[in-house]
Model the fold of this input.
Amino acid sequence: MNNNWDFNYLSKWYIQVLGLAIVIVFTYGHTLDVPFYLDDFSSIRENYIIYNWQGTLAELWNFSALRIIGYVSFALNYQVHQFQVAGYHVINITIHFLAGLAILGLLRGLVRTPTLDNVLSAEAKCWLPFVVALIFVLHPLQIQGVTYIVQRLASLAALFYLATMACFVQARLSSNKLAKFGWGLACSLFILLAFFTKQNTITLPIALLLIELIFLQSYQIRVRGLKILGGLGLGIIIFWLVLDQNSAMQKLVFENMPFLQTVDNLTRETTSISRTAYLATQMSVLWIYISLFFWSESSHIDYDNKILMVNSFFSDNENYQFIARLMDSEPIFALIGHLLLLGLAIYSLRRFALVSFAILFYYLAHIIESSILPIRDVIFEHRTYLPNLGLAMLSGWLLVVQLPRWLTLKKVIAFTIILLLFLGSTTWSRNQMWRNPVELWQHNVEQSPNKQRGWIILGKHLIIKGKQEQRQGLTEQSKITLNKSIEALNKAIIETRNPNGTKSISVTTETAINLVVAHKSLGQYGKALQWIDNSLAAKRNLRPFDQAKFLVNKGNILFELGRKSKKDAYNYYNQAEVSYRQALKVYPQNLKARINLASILEVLGRPDEAIKFYQQVLTINPSNAYVKKNLQRLLSKK
Done:
């Protein structure tokens, strides 16, 4: 058998597009019922900007100007699907598919550039784009960018980023003036959309410059251009690191050049992490990302930041005070490794241009979130969504270009198919875990047992499961599950020993709220009310949003006590009404307070007031079946 790939039909672009669609449906089609997680609640589910949106861009601009495109998509999702997660997932999966198409278009253009056109065989030009796109869309490390709803921001930004590069290549290769203008216009549109979807797209002009230098210019211009780029980048990083470590110089510079103070404020999410410490930490984090691409067994949703910190210590509220220096042994060895890879990219410029671009693109796509711009959470897998293109290109080049030089065609095809099947099945399996929140977070605490947030969220989902078991009549099983939730939440409580020998505990607001719900669900009303009273007593530490949650739960407990006590029912119901109204006073956007207040008003014999509150809820969340049913019942009685 000769070393020629089959061009009959599998090599057709529309067949490859269909192939991408099929594999994405297979690996992500069962995720339509995956619930909201982590920032999904603050950004979508509990974000009144989303569910109160009146259709004007000004509202969303004021909320998050640099991510307005993503939030417009969430707001539109809400207009159609309210909080039904299936609609959000359909959009996310579609974005992932379109990102795959953009990669297919980008690589189909790159293989026709002067640098690669005479180097690659016809077979490689045909199959390299398809294999790279398949690796990208099938890889399990992409799951957070697709299945984790709010990380649409990462995948949508990546889509616009990739589409910009693809259009740029087509514009540069087009000989027809009209076609060149059309591709150029599309390129401009996509770059504008990218800039207002997520901040990491600010590197897009540099990516286009890399394409121009590596694929469209001579070797001498490539080297000269990369030297200039590298020198400028290194100079900027050194300037900010020196400024970061010298407070006197920092004060002098900021006083004389106030705009640099503005830049400093805009280029950090937190002030509790120095730029030097963050860079030192990211040297190791980048190797974790790279290792996860090639073996993702330890992949999980929420990593333990503390074990990744360089010379750090832990303090309240999960803020880390860093005293790291870049020259500590661990980050310096990690840095040497990265410099060796970058050296390989420069060395490969003449013979292996695609390898050079893949390596340089990987680091460029990571540079905003993994360099000197401190972010509170130092590691999250969704940040690798766009950079993974670089590793997918390297993998595709090895499979399509290099491997056929060492192995027979049959072996290459067999190896490629096995690899793609492994990636697809792993992604399918991991997505299956995302459908079960308890399983997902149980896996998380096994991987990062010291991560406080993991135990909190595991406890929360065990509560949800326990309440479902209650409704199903599985009383004993429900008790076991709810007690497990309390055990998990207790592991999120931090106990410290004071200098005088006494002990004190640190409890996050979310932990306290979940403990309230767990004890309430077990009928332990005294313990639940004690947690509420203690938390409300520390009112200065609570946001209005959280105060409202405690007050709603207090109202719920009083309501249940009223149902259980004929003698004091009226008194309990009145107290519950007061608690719900207090919740609405401190945070008027709380939907549960409105729903429960309507219920208590009906019990107290005030149906007209109850109808008014039910109608208010339905203007915000028209798909709420419980409210619809109660409102219909009250109106029919009336």
Summary: Confidence is low (pLDDT under 50) at residues 311-327. Residues 219-245 form the longest helix (27 residues). The radius of gyration is 28 Å.
